[in-house]
From TrEMBL:
This is Protein translocase subunit SecE. The lineage of its organism: unclassified sequences, metagenomes, ecological metagenomes. The keyword Transcription regulation does not apply. It is found in: Membrane. InterPro entries: SecE_bac (IPR005807), SecE_sf (IPR038379), Translocase_SecE/Sec61-g (IPR001901). GO terms for molecular function: protein transmembrane transporter activity. Keywords: Cell membrane, Membrane, Protein transport, Translocation, Transmembrane, Transmembrane helix, Transport. Its main location: membrane. The chain crosses the membrane at residues 6-21, 28-47, 83-109. GO terms for biological process: intracellular protein transport; protein secretion; protein targeting; protein transport by the Sec complex. GO terms for cellular component: plasma membrane.
Length: 111
């Protein structure tokens, strides 16, 4: 039964895309609204399948986990950003120093 539902979903989406381009002389707003309506119906059918139900459950679990996330405060964010900037500058200076030393060695060897 799920295969039939997925075939219907695929047919609806293909028909919606075809209709969007076939009725190119109609107002863009109406074509977009029609396409969105067809996609909403296709989504509604897809959700009734086992894979669709699993996808919806996964999405709900992801939202629950996202709400559990502890976001840093502004102070923590600014401190971390400052540390990253300082480390980038330090690494840039170290790489510049290595480059200068290597260029000097190569210049000495080739002269």
């Amino acid at each position: 039964m799920d295969k039939i539902k997925f075939a219907i979903v695929l047919a609806l989406v293909v028909a919606g895309i075809y209709g969007f381009y076939h009725y190119a002389d109609e107002a863009f707003l109406f074509r977009v609204l029609g396409l969105l309506a067809i996609i909403a119906v296709a989504f509604g059918i897809a959700v009734t399948t086992q894979a669709g139900t699993n996808g919806v459950n996964f999405g709900r679990a992801a939202v629950v986990e996202m709400r559990k996330t502890v976001w840093p405060t502004k102070k923590e964010t600014m401190q971390t950003t400052g540390i990253v900037i300082v480390m980038v500058i330090i690494m840039g200076l170290v790489l510049w120093l290595f480059d200068t030393i290597l260029v000097s060695i190569i210049r000495w060897l080739t002269s």
